[in-house]
Hints:
There is one protein chain. By secondary structure, the chain is α+β, with helices and mostly antiparallel strands. It has 10 helices and 7 strands. Strand 6 and strand 7 form a beta hairpin.
Amino acid sequence: MQETQILSTRPLLPSDAPAPAARALVFDACHVGVVLRAVLFVEGVLAVGALFGAATAGEWLARVSLLTGGALPATLAWLVTACSLKRLLQRLREPMQYAAGVLLGTLAGLYACGMLALAGAAGEQPPWLASAATGALLSALLVAALVLRARGRTPAATTARLAELQARIRPHFLFNTLNSAIALVREEPAKAEALLEDLSDLFRHALVEQGEWTTLHEEIALARRYLDIEQVRFGERMRVQWVLDPRAGGARLPPLLLQPLVENAVKHGVEPSAHGVAKLRIATELQAGRVALTITNTVPAPQPHDAPPGAPRGHGIAQANVRDRLRLLHDVDCDFQAGPHKGLYQVRISLPPS
């Protein structure tokens, strides 16, 4: 009897390889949302501070404008410097990262005072010490807010990982896949082997320790394997169309994000279509400096007591989870939309190219 190869012969996905351990970055200023919030925070503090000693609204507005001329460039300088030194800061221990953020804030405060002094708006004796202390305090508060934001990713990512792992090994999907493989063993053994390899890869990818993000190219590869399994189950009832832009493959996504969206499309668009042909389209595109990912599926004819056409027949937990994880990774620099579109159901994600 010849030995059969039990383990999968397919190469590991790039994300399956264990990543080297890296020191955690306690705060990350490289986000558009962080820049907007930091500027609004500093402006709010200045606006409140300018109320002291301002007799009229005009005088208050003049003081705010004057202080903004020094504080706004200093705030942007702090953000740009913190973002530029991101890799260097990550090499430091956590207490040193905190100290570096506060030190940059102190320098930013001195920079703001210097700009006001050059403009002749700081008086005869510029408040160097007060400006440095203010910059240090504001930067400490900003670093604390960024740390809380970074720590907020951990429980969300853990919850999402457990949810996706549970979904991927749910008995319904597992039993259907094994039954399909059993039915193919005698008549089409090569096809049964490929099916089991796809299933093995899905399990392996779910169990491998994931990083904070992966690429759209890797998520597409994982979704292909899932749909290959479902294609065996549904046959001609499901038609999948891939329209992929190679330039969009480098976009960053949270791990295990695309597959549940594809699974939803199969569950709500293909499974209910017992006697018809269901179509599923996955498309990526890079246009105007943005990557667009769309997942479109046909909607089965409504049955009595069903939800309105186009409405997902679930509780929206998977979509809410995807939306939250995208916001944690890209903040305001991404967009997630889902709903009926021209008689179909479409999920659309817009995000930066890298």
